[in-house]
């Protein structure tokens, strides 16, 4: 009986053998009476270092290991068990990383992406903030201060209620911690979302200025995925609109620097609604946009982190330079930290403006226009930069822009192309665009929030209780042989 079971196990494990290793590097696992030959280098340390020449007995369910190996070998196949169960089991064997890679979608390429699934919390599902992680997981704020965490395989892991009435800004600090802010409650708050508990709070205080009191958090900057020691940058605003950007130590959770304090008395000194950390340049980008009966107005600024001084700024309407459009102020702006490019969407025309952060001057903007489908203007548009692509929501759909040559089936030689583009400059012919969604998709409503994480784009829409998950197909770029 064991011999037959071993044959079945060997077939399931064949996908993890070979690839440079010889037979002498293989380990035989006897899992519940079934034999699985696996490469020692792919196993956990305790299993790979076992010196016994006989099969290592493991008192666990062999059907789970067989399902794990099948998922690794054929990522597009139907899972025999929920992904959460398989990922938990894979931790024991040291196969978690391989399984997670197999369950993850292919590289996000906007021109071939489509709606893959939707996420909806069980209670009070309407989203108020998103925080996607570079591993593809998602922390979601919704309802009356609730947080829900979805694993990298998009399994629901936990939901709990915070002390906040409504969470409006959110970022993942680590695989288990999230920083949360509310436009209606003071302070920046750190939660362990796996344990569902409050860890710490950060307040903006100035003993020399009694007006600095009960400051709320308006925006939190995303942190570089490869640097866990980079500070947390968050925008604080007092009830009388005095505001600043605080740099917070991620270990001690104490403020270490105050940047760009403003009175908040006018549109040009209002609290930034978007903050981006440009680690390579040592700068912080901040933008503020307001709209009303007379249209849009706002500013964009770059602060030097070390000195705290403004090194560049522009405001609209009325920005300086030949490339500014007086009657067409921006509705949203974002920075591509990899390309070091600044993008904006114009509120009236809907055109996309692009500027090279290495070539800031009086005539910095170049503009690209959409096709007939994007002729509805940019009112209410949301712009998000992710993976060298620019995602723009419009009244009639979701559009993606990319620089020519940057994306080739999701892959690019960025370093070489970056030097070429820097020498040649950019123009309106350097970009291409396409709509990601169909007309049926756009009928679900105007997009409110977009957030990229891993190889996914998470999207929410007005008055919709679900989060859309957009992914590229594994068949993208496939060539038909018929």
Regarding CATH, which class of the largest domain?
Mainly Beta
The helix/strand class is mainly beta
**Mean pLDDT score, rounded?**
84
Strand content: 35-45%
CATH domain fold name of the largest domain: Methylamine Dehydrogenase, Chain H
Report on the biggest sheet: 4 strands, antiparallel
Helix content: 10-25%
CATH superfamily of the largest domain: YVTN repeat-like/Quinoprotein amine dehydrogenase
Give the tally of structural domains.
2
- Put simply, the count of helices is 7
Please give the number of β-strands. Answer: 31
Give the strand order of the largest sheet, numbering strands 1, 2, ... along the chain: 4-31-30-29
List keywords for this structure.
single chain; 482 residues; mainly beta; Potassium Channel Kv1.1, Chain A; Methylamine Dehydrogenase, Chain H; 2 domains; 4-stranded antiparallel sheet; 7 helices; 31 strands; 13% helix; 38% strand; globular; disordered C terminus
Could you walk me through the main structural features you see in this protein, from its secondary elements to its overall organization?
- This protein has about 475 residues and is mainly beta.
- The protein has two domains: about 1-105, Potassium Channel Kv1.1, Chain A (2-Layer Sandwich), CATH 3.30.710; about 110-470, YVTN repeat-like/Quinoprotein amine dehydrogenase (Methylamine Dehydrogenase, Chain H, 7 Propeller).
- Helix content is about 15%, strand content about 40%.
- It has helices spanning about 1-15, 45-50, 60-75, 85-95, 95-105, 415-425, 440; strands at about 25-30, 35-40, 55-60, 115-120, 125-130, 140, 145-150, 155-160, 170, 175-180, 190, 195-200, 215-220, 230-235, 245-250, 255-260, 275-280, 285-290, 295-305, 310-315, 330-335, 340-345, 350-355, 365-370, 385, 390-395, 395-405, 430-435, 445-455, 455-460, 465-470.
- The protein has a four-stranded antiparallel β-sheet with strand order 4-31-30-29, with no helix packed on it. A four-stranded antiparallel β-sheet has the order 5-6-7-8, with no helix packed on it.
- Strand 25 (about 385) and strand 26 (about 390-395) form a beta hairpin.
- The radius of gyration is 25 Å and the shape is globular.
- It starts with a helix and ends in a 10-residue tail after the last strand.
């Amino acid at each position: 009986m064991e011999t037959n079971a071993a044959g079945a196990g060997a077939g399931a494990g064949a996908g993890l053998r070979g690839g440079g290793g010889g037979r002498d590097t293989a380990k035989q696992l006897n899992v519940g009476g079934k034999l699985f030959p696996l490469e020692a280098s792919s196993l956990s340390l305790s299993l790979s270092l076992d010196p016994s020449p006989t099969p290592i007995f493991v008192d666990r369910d062999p059907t789970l290991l067989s399902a794990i190996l099948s998922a690794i070998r054929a990522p597009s196949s139907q899972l025999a068990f929920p992904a959460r169960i398989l990922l938990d089991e894979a931790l024991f064997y040291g196969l978690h990383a391989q399984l997670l890679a197999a369950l993850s979608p292919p590289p996000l390429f906007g021109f071939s992406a489509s709606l893959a699934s939707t996420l909806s919390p069980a209670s009070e599902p309407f989203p108020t903030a998103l925080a996607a992680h570079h591993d593809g997981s998602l922390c979601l704020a919704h309802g009356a201060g609730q947080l829900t965490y979805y694993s990298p395989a998009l399994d629901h892991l936990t939901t709990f209620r915070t002390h906040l009435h409504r969470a409006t800004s959110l970022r993942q600090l680590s695989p288990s911690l999230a920083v949360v802010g509310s436009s209606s409650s003071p302070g920046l708050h750190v939660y362990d979302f796996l344990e569902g508990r409050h860890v710490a709070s950060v307040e903006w205080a100035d003993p020399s200025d009694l007006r600095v009191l009960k400051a709320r958090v308006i925006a939190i900057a995303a942190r570089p995925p490869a640097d866990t020691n980079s500070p947390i940058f968050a925008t604080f605003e007092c009830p009388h609109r005095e505001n600043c950007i605080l740099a917070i130590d991620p270990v001690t959770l104490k403020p270490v620097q105050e940047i760009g304090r403003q009175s908040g008395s006018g549109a040009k000194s209002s609290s930034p609604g978007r903050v981006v950390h440009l680690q390579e340049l040592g700068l912080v980008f901040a933008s503020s946009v307001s709209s009303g009966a007379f249209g849009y107005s706002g500013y964009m600024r770059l602060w030097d982190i070390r000195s705290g001084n403004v090194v560049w700024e522009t405001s609209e309407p009325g920005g300086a330079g030949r490339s500014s459009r007086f009657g067409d102020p921006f509705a949203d702006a974002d920075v591509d930290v990899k390309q070091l490019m600044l993008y904006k969407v114009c509120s009236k025309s809907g055109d996309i403006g692009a500027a090279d952060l290495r070539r800031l001057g009086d005539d910095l903007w170049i503009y690209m226009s959409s096709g007939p489908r994007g002729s509805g203007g940019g009112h209410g548009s949301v712009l998000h930069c992710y993976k060298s692509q620019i995602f723009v929501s419009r009244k009639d759909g979701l559009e993606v822009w990319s620089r020519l040559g940057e994306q080739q089936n999701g892959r690019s030689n960025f370093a070489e192309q970056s030097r070429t583009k820097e020498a040649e400059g950019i123009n309106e012919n350097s970009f291409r665009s396409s709509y990601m969604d169909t007309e049926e998709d756009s009928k679900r409503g105007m997009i409110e929030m977009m957030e990229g994480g891993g190889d996914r784009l998470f999207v929410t829409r007005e008055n919709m209780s679900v989060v859309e998950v957009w992914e590229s197909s594994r068949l993208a770029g496939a060539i038909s042989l018929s």
